[in-house]
Amino acid sequence: MSRARVRARARRTHPSRLRLTAALAVTLAATTAATVAGPGVAAAAPTVVAQEAAEAALPVLDAGNYAHSVGATGFLAIHNRYPAYAATWTRYDGTSVRLPDDGSRYSGAAESDIVVGSKGTVHTVRDMASGGDPVVIDSPHELRAVNGSTLVMVDKVTDTLHLVSREPGGQTVDRKVTGLPSGKLYDVSPTAPGTVAVELGTGDTSTSRFAVIDVSTATVIRLYDTGYEFDRPQVTPDHIAWNSYDSGTRIVDRHTGVSETVPGRATLVFGDEWLAVHDAGRFTLRSRKDGHTAELLHSAGQVVPGPDGTLLIGGISTAGDWGFFRVALGADGEPKATMVADVPDGRELTLRSLSVPSRTSGYTRFSWDITDEEATASIKLTHTATGLTTTIHNEYQPFVTWDGRLRSKYFSAYNGTYTWRLRIASGDNFGPSIERTGTLTMARPTQRRDFNDNGAADALVRDGSGRLFAYETRELEGLRTPPDCHETSCSSIGEPTPELLGTGGWNTYTLLASPGNLAGGAADDIVGRDRDGVLWLYQSEKQKLLPRTKIGGGWQIYNKIVGGSDLNGDGRGDLLATDTSGVLWLYTSTGDARAPFKARKRIGAGWGQYNLLTAPGNIAGATGGDLLARDKDGVLWLYLGRGDGTFTARRKIGGGWQKYTQIIPAGKNPWHPVNDVLAVGPSGSALYTGTDSTTRPFEPAYTLPVRTDSTTYTTFF
User: What is the pTM of this model?
Assistant: First the structure.
């Protein structure tokens, strides 16, 4: 059926709505006192909407409602349109129960008739199936989910998880969950009775994990590691399932550990024998046994499993009726849908316009004009050459902004072509989503020391096994603890995600340097001197290094080789070397990989007093690339470059630099005109931001937790 025909039908007044007009003519409001203080105080009975029609009428809910939980006798619907907030228990017998509008926030237990109203520290537990007096629990913890009649709560002070319930005798039982690993507690998923799924912070933004908890014992059953960004997990007696924004839905057998991945956003239903799948804007029910499908509805915005192999779907029927549908397997084993609540004001999404740039160099905005101002959107970008992805989401604004990063919070995206897929879903959780696709090109300007073509300077690191990595310096900077951070969750981005440039063999080099673009290639180059005194050149291209070429022998006369800046103003990188007698020599580049250096030029003697040299480029606002030298007492000296391969008289920066074993160029911060340096040692490291000043060349250091060692961070250059 076309969307135009569905919209036309959705706007008619269909028979169920005509019946509802007569059926809702009489409304009875029964009142008793509201329970807000504790046990023994009478509770207010919700307003009951009665039916007087000869034939059964459907309850009416507007499009601002979503199904929070589903039980055997009905479901909890919560109105999510600001500023309205109302909670209704909609029964399958055709009546609706409006829960007290006393400022409480309502939560439902998954696959249960239990509803909890929370107001301050008081939590009122109602069994909507049997009625009776509510149970009141007073707890200082924060409610995160309800499992049966158990409150799943977090102590905000200690960041610990608690299971709180009340015994028949009136005693409140507070059990602390044991077996959880250290880490920040995030979302708690309202899974099936008996188990709880808890998302845990790992300190690494490139991955996530969650724990499955046995409610009866308050202990962790198992931990599951997931990919970067995942939706709330589903726990059933036999399976675990979670949706990844990048790779579909993963389903794991809890008994065997065998896993499978299915496309789209999928929910296990009907005793795990079927899947309810949203994929590419379509909704289908698919048998896991033989793969056949049942398309009961035109579209579905929400699928909530209920008890006894049922589920509730908020969506649009093939006849164009908007509402909530209860679905169960019939005698023939096929799904059957019954409409249990009417949504007369539903309107399908219409995308009026979409603006996406075809080319970008950093921050990128995707914007649109749509009929639902509270629609939610996500956009997935995939780098064509590498397959790396990122997904970004909006927060009810008619746009999303890509910050130009991939994989983790601090990893800049590669240059090149990207495909994008935009999905916009109605804030009403009913109608079909809108999907659009396209391509764009990331084209950042060339950056010094950029070895993976992502527009950011890198720190080159050799590890203990002889592998070579490129670490984005801004990612290393992200490891620092912000001065205004008071929580462990904001102290670090976790483990960095470097680029592997060389798989092994780099231990053969006794000296390494990155002198810039010597040979006119696509990016900066690397030189290494082997144990025989031969110097080798590696040109870089995109995310890899080209095979090495031999420069020549005789380099064993040098004890230090440094590069990283243009010293003579020709736009190419140059190389500096000190010989064993303390003379400093300059090798200017030619732009030809076959003979990358001109004849060496003597700068001067006396450089044997220094045990460390760094050529970071312009850090103090002079006309050429500068030079940093550390003496044997740990004092750092600055030599300003004149732009012709020579330097001014040295200027003292300060002492205390003996704690560092390596000081390397860190590139240019986009918000500063000059370069930074990264200093690394066995006790820690620090990023020094250039100031464009000859008298105070650096800002106070940002300390970082990176330490040189014999395995991961053996050599920085």
Answer: 0.71
